[in-house]
Design a protein that fits this description.
The structure is a single chain. With about 325 residues, the chain is α/β, with parallel strands linked by helices. The chain is built from 13 helices and twelve strands. It has three domains: about 45 residues, no CATH class; about 130 residues, Rossmann fold, CATH 3.40.50; about 140 residues, Response regulator (Rossmann fold), CATH 3.40.50. The protein has a six-stranded parallel sheet with strand order 2-1-3-4-5-11, with helices on both faces. Strands 7-6-8-9-10-12 form a six-stranded mixed sheet, sandwiched between helices. Helix 7 links the parallel strand 3 and strand 4. Helix 1 crosses helix 3, helix 5 packs across helix 13 and helix 8 packs parallel to helix 9.
Length: about 325
């Protein structure tokens, strides 16, 4: 079955039928409906690979994330898809599992599929070489949440991690905590290092104890937060204030604290990061630093679309930096 057969069956020209499958705004709604009905009746499946060769566009976007264990990335993916869908783009999602080697292999595959652009949350340990094929072939791309050390400046969408660390420390200090820690997160990331240093600087400037033993790194998952906190609790009491690198880590740490008999929100005040949906329904609900994952995903997708549709508009790199905000809930002692 060919496109010409569908066009003939619907009573239109082949070029009109082609515009229908390209989701062109030039085609009337009634015409589109007639062509799609004809395609369904005849069992026709549009060959987008052949269309991509003709038009040099596949109407696909590659989205690389470290994985879906962190709910933040799940929310980010949904926001990207919602932003791209009205423009007729399909998202090809790939999990790098924090492996630079896997990331390179995935990028090569997506380039073979002729994606029109890429949104990338770089895997931990990514080097500038990751972006070289994209620059060589002129594939538009935007980095999300993380930067790549040593890479030339390019389009980036993320949050002010230093302000996020300060915000968490200031709030715990306002509660009168005399010992604080920045708990969890992958050690070899810009976000973790920046938040941790800002948090520690704020705590030490206030003249209270920064609990080094609790300021250790972990994977970004609830199970990692639970196991690390459980092991530390066997060696002694926790700090009075605990700022976790993510809400997922906070969920695990809070479970470990409760299991050991500590009251979260009273004896130990806990703050998460990312403000994922489950933070509001957790018990106790989790105070969190919000970085607007929805808005961040939409902004990155919109920026990439602009690069694809108007490639010559601006050669200079553009960034969008979101200012974190504090969402008060029960885990830090707030009672909203």
């Amino acid at each position: 079955m060919t496109l010409a057969d569908v066009a003939r069956h619907a009573g239109f020209s082949r070029s009109t039928a082609s515009l229908v499958f390209q989701d062109s705004p030039l085609v009337a709604a009634a015409t589109k409906a007639a062509v799609l009905t004809a395609a369904k009746e005849l069992g026709y499946v549009y060959d987008r690979r052949a269309a991509a060769l003709r038009t040099r566009k596949s109407h696909t976007i590659g989205l690389l994330i470290p994985g879906l264990a962190n709910p933040f990335f799940a929310a980010l993916v949904q926001a990207v898809e919602e932003q791209l869908s009205p423009s007729g783009f399909t998202v090809l999602l790939a999990n790098t599992l924090e492996s630079p080697e896997r990331q390179i292999a995935v990028l090569e595959t997506l380039l073979e599929y002729r994606v029109d652009g890429l949104l990338i949350v770089p895997a931990i340990g990514s080097g500038p070489d990751v972006l070289q094929p994209l620059d060589h072939y002129g594939v538009p791309h935007v980095l999300l949440t993380r930067r790549i050390a040593g890479a030339a400046e390019g389009d980036w969408v993320g949050s002010d991690d230093r302000r996020g660390g300060q915000l968490a420390a200031e709030h715990l200090l306002d509660h009168g905590c005399q010992s604080l820690a920045y708990f969890g997160g992958p050690l070899d990331t810009y976000a973790r290092a920046t938040r941790h240093d800002a948090f520690a600087d704020t705590v030490l400037t206030a003249g209270v104890t920064f609990a080094e033993e609790w300021s250790q790194g972990t994977e970004t998952s609830s199970s990692a937060g639970y196991e690390a906190a459980r092991a530390l609790l066997q060696s002694g009491p926790p700090p009075e204030g605990l700022a976790c690198h993510s809400d997922a880590i906070a969920f695990g740490a809070m479970r470990a604290l409760r299991d050991a008999g500590w009251s979260v929100g009273e004896q130990v005040r806990v703050i998460g990061y990312d403000d994922v949906e489950h933070a509001r329904s957790w018990s106790p609900s989790v105070t969190s630093i919000s970085v607007s994952s929805d808005e961040m995903g939409r902004t990155a997708a919109a920026l990439l679309l602009e690069r694809i549709e108007r490639p010559g508009r601006s050669a200079s790199a553009r960034t969008a930096v979101f200012t974190p905000t504090l969402q008060l809930r029960e885990s830090c002692g707030a009672h909203a």
